[in-house]
Amino acid sequence: MLSRLLYLLLLGLSVHHQQTGTEASTHWLLNTNGQIIPQLTSPFYLRRSYDLIAFLNQNVYKQKIDLIISELLAIKSNLTAKMNNLDAYTNDLTTKIGCIPNFYLDESDILSTIINMNYINRITIPDKGSAAAGAAVSSKAVAAKGKVPSPKCGDYMKLDFSVGSFDHLDGIYNRSQLKMVPEDMFKSLEFYVPSVKSPQALAEDLRKNPSSWKYHTIASYYWRKKGNAREALECARRAVVLAPRKYKDIALLSMGTVLQRSQCLNDSLVVLRAAVDHEPNEPENQMALGNTYMLLSEFNRSFEAYKAAESLDSVYAEHNDYIKKSINCFKDLKINLLTMERLLQDIIPGLERYGALQKEFDEYHEKLDREQAPLKTRVFDEAYSKQVDFLIQRSQICTTRMTKEKSEPILSCDFISDVQMLMEDFAVEILNNYVDLKKELINTYKINSLGIYKKIFVEHF
């Protein structure tokens, strides 16, 4: 049956050649107007026109390419719509970043450090002893006399595991592993508490008064200023155990702040709640508790604590107002960035499929092109001026080469087929570059512009 059809096809072409007497194209297409027009780019225009197997394979390759092109077009349309949506959020980003310079908030801005004079006055009161005046003095304190004095509280008072010093908390139990940055603001405390500046004087105070909660508390400030979380907690533990109830919140605040700055936020919350329970009318306690709630993204409770601090001392009103405005600013910005990130992630699977299809496209096109005659060698009827123009427009890949016979270079041009032109429309590199640029944009804003909001879930507020 197949051989009969081929015979009829060849017979028809032969009759047409005899009737017209022209060098006609060997490939024709019936267009929508009912006209039969020659086709220069036909995939069945073979190098070896007599190769039946190659002819049959061309049909298989052509059908496969048509299916791939159909899916590529659908994916490209879908990706284009998603990229347009992402671009809209990118453009909207410019309206969200205007408030960044005015309300930027870094983690160091939210962490608690003593700034209240009333609080300082409570620390600098004359020491009248403590609830644990009979606490054991370490033998290291005596040995330390012959060495450079150091305000390491463990050298002046033994304190084994104690529930009273919150040793059951993971952060306290594993205090040797904690890290924190130095608290520079303690430099302002040195004027009021000189021993914070002088380790020798503080060590001497601890040696003389090893059961004084005040000196252990001040020693915890010294180590916080140095950024030594372990020694700061060692001193705060002893201060919590030694302090009378009236002043226990001071030691608890120092302990809770060290845990807060060491990123042990849940443990910090437990200790700072205890500080507020002991003295709810101390605004520093409320502020520190509010800060931990903030870092845990519990904004309603955070604002309750901030409001309590503000009602106790109006000096905090400006700070709290700044935080509220900052949250409103960065909430919109972060939501925008997260939406862009989600849209970008939604693009990637389609892009991966797009890239895989393009490789498959290239593979079948190579097979299809391998058997085709070069476009510039194909026979066509010069009477068709459109075909001539068509061929001229396809001469897009040109090179020069030298020959032995002539001293001048020869210009040689190749011609691009329909399938090759389609390959340019499906350039996956352009889409990959688009995704890379968007990733870089989003990451730049998330890293450099969000500040503290990289860590807290302001978008849920």
TrEMBL record:
InterPro entries: TPR-like_helical_dom_sf (IPR011990), TTC17 (IPR052630). Residues 1-24 form the signal peptide. This is TRP-phosphatase. Keywords: Signal. Gene3D superfamilies: Tetratricopeptide repeat domain.
